[in-house]
Automatic annotation (TrEMBL):
InterPro entries: OMP_Chaperone_SurA, PPIase_dom_sf, PPIase_PpiC, Trigger_fact/SurA_dom_sf. It comes from Thioclava marina. This is Parvulin-like PPIase. PROSITE patterns: PPIC_PPIASE_2. Residues 1-24 form the signal peptide. Keywords: Isomerase, Rotamase, Signal. It comes from the Bacteria. SUPFAM superfamilies: FKBP-like, Triger factor/SurA peptide-binding domain-like. It holds the Pfam family Rotamase. Residues 158-261 form the PpiC domain. The keyword Mitochondrion does not apply.
Amino acid sequence: MMTRLLTLLALVLTLPLAPRVAMAQAGNYAPVITVNGLGITDYEISQREKFLKLLGTPQSTREDAEKALIEDRLRTWAGKQLGMKMNEEALTRGMSEFASRGNLSTEQFITLLGQNGIDPNTFRDFVAAGVIWREVVRARFAPLINVTSADVDRAMMPESQTGKGVKVLISEAIVPAPAGQEAAALGQARQLSAAKGEGAFAALARKYSAAPTRDRGGRLEWMPIDKLPAQLRGPILALKPGTATGPIQLNGAVAVFMLRAIGDGDAPSAPQDLSYMTLNLGATGSAQAAKLAAQAAADARVCNQLYTVAKGLPESAITLHEKVAQSAVPTDEALVLAQLDPGETQILRRGGSDVLVMLCSREVADTKDQPAPDRKTVRSSLEDQALGAYATGYLADLEAEAVIVRK
C-alpha cells in the first residue's frame, strides 16, 4: 500500500482530479495565515500534515504543511490573475485516472483518506493547485520555449546509436533550499547556470553546493547516461561541453549540472529496478545526524544492517524501497543512486535534514523492451523540462513578492 501511495504522490501534481466532496467533519476555519489575501486555516494545516504523513513523504511536519499550503495559495492566486477556472468534467476524469495508477478506484482512494481521518477536500485542494499551476506556467512561458531539431537530435542520441551507449562527464551542484530560503537558493542556482566553463562552475559549486562533490568543484567521474535519472538525460544531452542546465527543482534543493564531455560507452542497458533504503538522520549539522552517519559508515555494509543503525528512531525514519522502477525514483534519490554500487551510501541533504541513501541492488527490469521514443515525444519532453525550470523560478518570484501574514 505504501508503494501505491508514493506512486500517487509522484503523479499528483501532473493530473486533474475529481469533483469536490462535501466536508465530513468540523474544524477551525479561522485563517491563521493569509497569502495575498487568500486564507489558510489551522484545520487545513492539520489536514495537510496528516495527508503528507499518509503518503510517507520525508517532509511531513506542521511547518512542511504550512510551506506547501503557502505555495499552493500562490499557485491559486496566479491562476486567479489569469481568470483560470477548473473544468468539472476534467476533474472527474482525472481523479479516476489518478486512482487507477495506484491500483485504486476513485471511491477506494477516498475511503482510504477517510479511514485515516483525512477530509477528501484536502486531497482535492492539493491537486487543484497543481493543475491550475500547470496551466498558468503553460500560458505564461510556453511561447518563450523554442526546442530546435538539433535539441531533439542530441536528446535522442542514446536511442539512436546502434550497438553503442553514451557516457557523460558532468559536474553537479546541489543547492539546499530549506523552508524560507527557496528564493536565495534559486538565485545561487541561476549563478551556476550562467557559469561559463568548468572553472567558473567549480568555484561556484565549492561555494554553494551541499553535495559530497563540492570539495572537488562538483566533478563526477564518467557515467553511462542510462544510470542517470531519465528526467535529467534530456537536459544534459542538450548541452554543449562547458555549459550548464537551468535550475532543476529537487526535494528541498535546486540542482544544476554542467556537461564537461560526452563519449561512447558500453551498450545501453535495459530498464532497471532499484532496491534501496533511506534513513532520515535528523537535522543537518546536528549531533544526532553526525553520530548516525558515522555509525552507518562503520557498521552498515548491506541494507539490512541499517535497521541496527536506526534502532531507537521513529519507525518512519527508515524506509525500504524494494524493486522500484528507475523512472519512478524521485530525482534527487535517483541522482545519488546513479553514483552508488550495492552496499554503498551517500548523504542527501533535503531542506534542513540529512537523509542517508544506500543502494541494495540494481536489477534488469522484468519488462518487455519498449520502442525508442519518437521525435514528437522527445520534443514534448524537452518542452516540459524547460517549463519546469521556468515554473521553479516563477514560484520563487511570486513568494518573494507576496504579502504573507501570520496571525
